[in-house]
Structures are given as C-alpha cells and as structure tokens.
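Dear U.,

For the methods section draft, I wanted the exact inputs and outputs in one place so we can describe them consistently. I've listed the two proteins in the order they'll appear in the manuscript figures. Please don't edit the token lines directly; just add comments below if something needs changing.

First protein:
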Amino acid sequence: LRKAVGETRSAKDRAAFDRKLSIARMDAMLDARRYKAATQAADALLRKGADAATRCQALYVKGSAIFKQRRRADARAVFDKATAACRKTEGVTGFEVKSRYQGARGLYAEGKYEKAAEAFSSLAKDHPKNSYADDAWVLAGESWAEHGDDAKATSAFEAALAVDGDMKDEARRRLLLLAFAAGGAARALALC
C-alpha cells in the first residue's frame, strides 16, 4: 500500500511510529505472560539507541517482565534505570512513579527494609496526589515494621490514612495490629 500511495510520513515520523508499535507489542507480550520475549524485545529496542521516553517505557516493560517472574530483587536495577530515563522526559510521569514503586518493592525483596521504607516514603511525599501514594505509605509502614521500627511504621500507616485512598482500610488494620501488639487497647478502640 505504501508503494502504491507513496510514503506520506517523514523518516522521523516513521521511526516514532515504529517505537510506539514496539512498546505496544511488548505490553501485549507482558499481558500474554511472554516475559522472556518481552525482555528480548525491550533489549532489541534499547540497542537501537532509543530516545528518553522510549528508554523509560522499554526499561519499565523489561523490569516488569523480570518482576513478574518472581525475580523482584533482579528487577530493581532495571526499574532504577527506568526511573532515571523517565526523569529525563516529559509526559511519562506515570512510568517514573511506577518504576520507583517497583524498585522499592525490589529493595524489600532483597531484605533491605530500611532502604525500602525510605524509597516508599520518598515516593509518597514526592507524588502525594498519585494513586500510588497510599500504597507507598502502607508498604513504607510494612518495611519499617520489618526493620523493627514500630514508631516509624505507625507514622507511615497514619500517613496512608491521611491520603484517604483505597488502602485506607489496610492502613487502619495495620495500625490496629500494632496497637494490640503494644498493649494499647485504648488506641485500638479509638481506631475502631
């Protein structure tokens, strides 16, 4: 059809379209649980010298493919690269937030609970209106609890309550457990 009609797009436009098509194909591979193929496709696209927005999305897909294979600690380094690429571009803030969130989950999987808590807290503070904010606070609290700092865990769960998102009930449940464990029946009752 292109031969018959003649090329109507510039080389730059064709390249941009091909990049978008590659990203869409990788997303479809993720949805179909073809994680190895998605990783290979991301690597192939990255070898072509992609712009920052494409690098951001391709690295996010690659990290997600690794993460979904239950290799969360291995995925962290890829999500960190995705975060760096996403910060260099406009219009892909959602990928930056998702990459930071998944990277923090990788830290948690590595058993680096203090660093994970700090990463989740930082994300929630930097993007307080994002739908990931309350999730990040809850996971920050969980990370602090695993680190053995119940005071910081309590603060994080209270911050999740203040966001008033879909994790509000989970944050309240975690606060109740902490209150009961500390013998704070009055605090638990107040939370109820």
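Second protein (the one for the lower panel):
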Amino acid sequence: KIMSASGFLLDLVNDVLDMNKLESGEIAIKEEPFELTKIINEVSSVIETQADEQCIDYSVDRGSIEYDNLIGSSLHLRQILQNILSNAIKYNVQNGSVRFSYSENAADDDIVKVTFICKDTGIGMSEEYLKDIFKPFTREETSLTDAVQGTGLGMAITKNLIDLMGGTIKVLSTQGVGTTYEVTMEFRIADINT
C-alpha cells in the first residue's frame, strides 16, 4: 500500500509540474531525428506490461509506413502516446481490449502526417464529461472510476502537448462501450542520406 501510494504521489507531483510548465510556456519542443517504429515499440513494451497486469488484450496494428525516420519531439510524442494508452488500460474492464494503430497519410514535400488511433472496450465517458475532458483536474466521477487513481491532469497535458506540436486530437466515447482517441500529427521527413 505504501509503494502504491508513493507511486501515485510521484505521478501527481510530475503531472502538476508538467502542467505548470505548459501553462507558463516553459516547455520547448525539440526538433530532433527519431525512428517512429522505435518509439512505438518502446511505448508498447510498457503498455503491454500494464495490460497483462489488468488482464487486458493489447494489440498494435502497424500500418504501412514509408517514412520511419522523422524529425520532431520524440520525448513529447512518447508522452502523448503513453498517456492515451495508459488511460485506455486504466479505465478498461477485465478481459477488455485496447487496439492501437498508426498510419501515414500522403507526404507533402518534406512533411508527413501520421494518425494514431487508440480504441478500447473500457468504461467509456458521458457526453457531458467529454466537453470537459481536456480541462485540468477534471475526472468523471462514477462508481466505475472510484477504484481508479488519477490526478485529472493526464488528458490536459496530452492536449497541450498536441497543440504545441501542431497536431489534433478527437475523442469519441460511449459509457459502457468504450472510447476511441484519434491523434494526427505532422513531422518532417528526415533525410537519412545526410
């Protein structure tokens, strides 16, 4: 219980610090080369562990990616995906599932759009709560969420990071059925010959 409580407090402090940095404009987006599949694999290895602990079936649909070497903020992309996928596991039901997919839209000059979709069979959210999902310190309070620890900052941080990186996020959800997150982001294509 002590380990669980201290882990929760550490997450809370980190989330508050991240939110504070975002609100004060202190977070800088670093443009650096990265491999998309490497980021996906690293995030998935963490999520798979969480899924196994919760008896959730987690799978990744790897779309056809022509441009794996990109330029952008790999740190913040990792944080965005981690937050969304962790929520999909955390607010799921026993023996539920999380399907994560990503695909590449047509490249324009040296820019490529990548769409990430996370679809879960979790507890879902009400239409009323969806209007507030990106507000800091908000959580939908139901008998199903009472057992789940959370700060109410994860989605606010995620939305702020996506906005900073020039991306978009859409959320579709039905209570008792599940939630689908769709994130679209643009990255520069890295020239692997230079």
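Candidate sentences for the figure legend, describing the second protein: Strands lie at 32-35, 57-62, 69-72, 97-104, 111-120, 168-174, 178-189. The chain has a mean pLDDT of 84.

Thanks,
Y.
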